[in-house]
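Hey, I was hoping to borrow your eyes for a little while. No rush at all, and the record is pasted right below.
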Amino acid sequence: MTSVSAAYEPAVSRTGSPVAGAPASLRNVMSQFATGVVVLTVGGGRPHAMTANAFSSVSLATPSVLCSVAHSAVMHDVLEGGGKFGVSVLSAEQEYLARHFANKERELGAAQFEGVDCFAGLHTDAPLLRGALAWMECELEAAHSSGDHTIFIGSVLESRVGDGHQGLLFFDGKFGRASRVA
């Protein structure tokens, strides 16, 4: 039996050389973890959206999810003050929306939703994106600061599945597709 330490190999860059520094090493390693892509939204008087892939379920017994948001992101302050938020799980055909809501140069406020096909969530008033694979509406339950991010936990008020068949993935710094298996 091989020991865990004997099997461990330090992180290396895509060129094969060791990666120096914890942040660079972690970014390199995490780029190898394929994730889905969501757009987080807040409605009301301060509408905002943000593309995220640091998103996960927390509990099914008490339905809840989490998202991790950088302290420097506009969404950080909006989520803290909003109390409720929406989640649109993007389909493969919505890569353009992932790029749009990740673009730091876009207009903010209601203007960022101009030309975007969305509808207001019944429980949150958060814009939810039409054509998404699934949607959730959440109420902020807790926030835990860690390093340069805050982990926001939301109680799921309602969740729905759409009609799409291919999900949008993020892997190795690029977008990709995942299909439902028959």
User: Anything to note?
Assistant: Confidence is low (pLDDT under 50) at residues 1-6. The radius of gyration is 18 Å. The first helix runs from residue 4 to 7. The CA atoms of residues 43 and 126 lie 4 Å apart.
